[in-house]
Amino acid sequence: MRHLLLSRVLRRASSPSQPHHHLQLIRALSSSSPLPSSDADLRKYAGYALLVLGCGAATYYSFPFPADALHKKAVPFKYAPLPDDLHTVSNWSGTHEVHTRVLLQPDSIPALEDALATAHRERRRLRPVGSGLSPNGLGLSRAGMVNLALMDMVLDVDVKKKTVTVQAGIRVAELVDALREHGLTLQNFASIREQQVGGIIQVGAHGTGAGLPPIDEQVISMKLVTPAKGTLELSREKDPDLFYLARCGLGGLGVVAEVTLQCVERHQLVEHTFVSNADEIKKNHKKWLSENKHIKYLWIPYTDTVVVVQCNPPSKRKTPKLTSKYGKDEALQHVRDLYRESLKKYRTEAESKDPAIDQLSFTELRDQLLALDPLDKDHVIRINKAEAEYWKKSEGYRMGWSDEILGFDCGGQQWVSETCFPTGTLAKPSMKDLDYMEELLQLIEKEDIPAPAPIEQRWTARSRSPMSPASSSEEDDIFSWVGIIMYLPTSDPRQRKDITEEFFNYRSLTQTSLWGDYSAYEHWAKIEVPKDKDELAELQVRLRKRFPVDMYNKTRMELDPNKVLSSAKLEKMFPGTRTVQHAK
User: Fold this and answer.
1) Cβ contacts of 429-435, under 8 Å, gap ≥ 24
2) How far apart are CA 105 and CA 97, in angstroms?
3) How far apart are CA 249 and CA 470, in angstroms?
4) Does residue 66 register a pLDDT over 50?
5) CA–CA distances in Å: residue 129 to residues 254, 290, 408
6) Is the pLDDT of residue 431 over 60?
7) 490: closest CA among 398, 370, 404?
8) CB 175 within 8 A of CB 260
9) What is the DSSP letter of 217?
């Protein structure tokens, strides 16, 4: 389960921690050391060595680490339990976490203003963090964080204008529930609905539909609380330049406290899911992009299977048959059989007979399968083929409210890299989106990457927010978004480390082979800042080519001169001009 609120990702020091690693004491030898001159000396030194090892073992087992020790950073005879006032905050994938003593949750704009003014005066960091869902932990900061979970009220609904004003800490799911009684809903949704509204607009989140823009375009006005200038009311009419810049401001210009969103009438959608292939996609792609309100492709590596998901308002002339040819158990049977066979190979036959296997969902089965051998290419290919078979037996239609239909089960914890790139206009698509996918799938096979499914491809219209990856001055431009993943189906630290290394190799290959040719840039919530200095310099130069970094930095210095809202990640992505000139 994903964390629903930031408070659910806080883990106190009293929670069980990982087992400590056995520490070996090694005596260094050098060629200059005097050699024993007799058997007596040999016995003497051997006795000393045994005595030291025995004392060490006795000490180790007599005084074990306490349950709340920071074992990851423990060294021999130097460890410390987490203090009671220290919070551990992680993102939902567990790929990023910080320890902090400062985690504020104001319940009003005056309280938020006071917190930021105090931090500004004392020159302390106070990074805004939402629900902690960003895969790269964009909102995390050990220096201090502020979260608006207690500012989650619906302030006003204008049914005639179809607008809603909310406090920015409200979650998307709660907002949709509140709008239901007014016959309204949001225009589009990301895959999940647990984000806080302030967070989902600040990182440039998006749904799918070539005629629909990213979610920041739904914002028509907002209140931005800044460290240096207090609360600013922004809209298309009031300070439009700052308004558009701050809509996708990455939490670096101010804390979004209130938002007015443009809504649409609550409506139903018919979802049509069917299996296609690359050749059929090429023949129909232009037509499908223009004819479908929402569309996405799920590409399955090492197969010719492409799952097509189209969502449209119900037709008054024709009602589709909403029952599937196969039942749920029939669709899952092939995946269950593969799991049982794999358990016999990797575990025991007794485990393969566990009746609980029949209670697992498809994504749970996939996680369990991958956990057995996540980096064995042949094993991953068998799982991908089983997934293709599952989707073939899941073809069909379903109808429901838009907020229910547009959600998507992304699976368990995972590493993800999602890129956005231009692909022509709706009237005249460039087809570069399909070229990108063709090259990506060829790269995966050429490099023997154990790439799991699916590779999700979506589309949006342009955004007028200059910091959006889909930013464009041309109204008709459309953009494709492609996400590659590697799941983290295990809690074993060594296995997670191996998966992490393989994922970053996967991501690096796509970057060097594809990003430059297609003008592809990563989603802000999915950029992993490199540790290598040369790679970091390259990232800074790339970002400067695509985004108005100078304007962004200048505005940051005006609204937050003491960098209260900043973080190490933000400073590395957007350094001062001199630093970048030196990198060039």
Assistant:
1) 429/285, 429/286, 429/289, 429/478, 431/282, 431/285, 431/286, 432/480, 432/518, 433/285, 433/457, 433/459, 433/480, 433/482, 434/278, 434/281, 434/282, 434/285, 435/518
2) 19
3) 14
4) no
5) 12, 37, 23
6) yes
7) 370
8) no
9) G
DSSP state of 515: I
| CB neighbour list of residue 328: distance below 8 Å, 6 or more residues apart | none
**Pairing status of strand 145-146 against strand 103-104:** parallel
Q: Round to whole Å and give the CA distance between 392 and 384.
A: 12
The residue count for the chain: 584
Task: With CA atoms as reference, report the closest residue to 313 among 268, 274, 272.
Answer: 268
Which residues contact residue 557 at a Cβ distance below 8 angstroms, ignoring those fewer than 6 apart? none
Cβ neighbours around 369 below 10 Å, total: 25
- H or E stretch covering 151: none
Please state, in angstroms and rounded to a whole number, the distance separating the CA atoms of residues 45 and 49. Answer: 6
| Cβ pair 115, 104 in contact under 8 A | yes
Q: Report phi then psi at 407, rounded to 5.
A: -70, 160
277 pLDDT more than 50: yes
pTM summary value = 0.84
Alpha-carbon Rg for the chain, nearest whole angstrom, is: 27
In sequence order, which residues have a C-beta less than 8 Å from that of residue 117 and are 6 or more positions away? Answer: 227, 230
- Residue 445 CA to residue 381 CA, distance in Å, equals 11
Give the H/E segment covering residue 170: none
**pLDDT tens digit sequence for 16-41:** 344 333 323 233 333 344 444 456 66
Name, in order, each residue with C-beta under 8 angstroms of 574's C-beta and a sequence gap of 6 or more. Answer: 252, 540, 543, 549, 552, 553, 556
> Please, what sign has the CA dihedral across residues 54, 55, 58, 64?
negative
